[in-house]
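Fold sample X.
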Amino acid sequence: MSLPDLLRVFSSKSARTSSFLPSKPTAQLIILTSAPETSATWLLDNVFRARFAGAGAGCATEKKVVLVSFLHDFSFHIESMRKYGVDLAARSRTDEFAFVDGFSRLLDDPAEAPDGDNVVLSAPATGWKAQISAAMGAAGSSLLVVEAPEMAVGLGMLSDADMHYLLMDLQAQSVCTVVVTTPLGEHLDGGPRLQSVLADRALAVLSVRPLSTGMARDVTGTVTIERGGAPLFFFGDGRDTDEDTVEAGEFLFSLGEGAATSGSSLRVFEKGTV
């Protein structure tokens, strides 16, 4: 999936959508953040939906999606994607998708891995890289999504520095890595430090937030796109080209009643548009 494809799921009506992100991603890092009032789950679900629907065909280079979650178990994501007509369990049996269960490890009650190409992280954490890498397959062939890595840090499974190095090693093996942070991470030991260092290394930070004025009838909240520190981190020369940086922007989104069951009431649009 190219980076423009990541945002193209927002609106089929806006030609400008694809202009917010660079055209040549290579093992880039994208951060999705949210607030307690506005979950980013719908955004992640639409990334999956676009990928499995073949959105951006001709641009996609990854062969597999790998989701590592420290916040939800596999059944949560299966149910979440069902409203879009996507069967994640079936996808995992065709080598299109793999779920890596870190949630059960945090509970110290590892579940038996479901059928398909799925993994339950083992103890100790020093073995996690090998397990996740095996699920990803050949280098440069996977879209890697890591959900709430701060939970593992806050619960003492590994330090924020060790998690950072783990994510960077895995990022180097992926086509693109998306880290979905949780608002809970701000209150966990090491969580804010991890979130900060990841933003410094990211190409883009997408933040899902409620409206500053509160809920409106036709608007649930905002999605803000900010530049991460990746261009400065990697180049350090003030380079500012379309390929190296992200154009900042802001979208409004609306989650109607039907969005919870069918996804059909989801709308994302630019300010001043309908």
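Fold sample Y, listed below.
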Amino acid sequence: MKAYLIIILIFCLGCVSKTKKSPPSESAEIETKKESKTEKSDFYVKFTKVDNRAHVYIDDSLIYKSDYTLGGANEVAYEVDISSYINNSEKLKVVLYNGVEPYDEQVDTYWEIMYDLILDGEVVDFIHEQEQENIVGVAFESEYIIEEWRLNAK
């Protein structure tokens, strides 16, 4: 009988100690405050079609080169996070290269590019261009003023 009462007593004490709430730690509060202070916008270029290779520039500095897509396999899922590059930057440029380097003496009659400009999860602009010309090298180029991109999102 004593053993039975001891087991019940231990079980009850275990339940009481589990239901006690400990005060939140200071480090948890600090983490939350840090996150809210450093909130920033997320800027992405999300490519869904590239034939043959895409480059992304911020203020004329190359920050991204896609892989080559050859033989009509131009559906891709490249997501380029440019958030850390644009704090003091003015221009974003997307360039599509048709063919394969070096771009001399080759025939490539088709090029295509499709991408979204995304700000904080919202598509700000959608671009889809294609041609069936024998352009080798730079086939498409588009430049964006970053501040205008921000304003379009509002």
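Sample Y note: The radius of gyration is 27 Å.
Also: The chain has one domain: 43-153.
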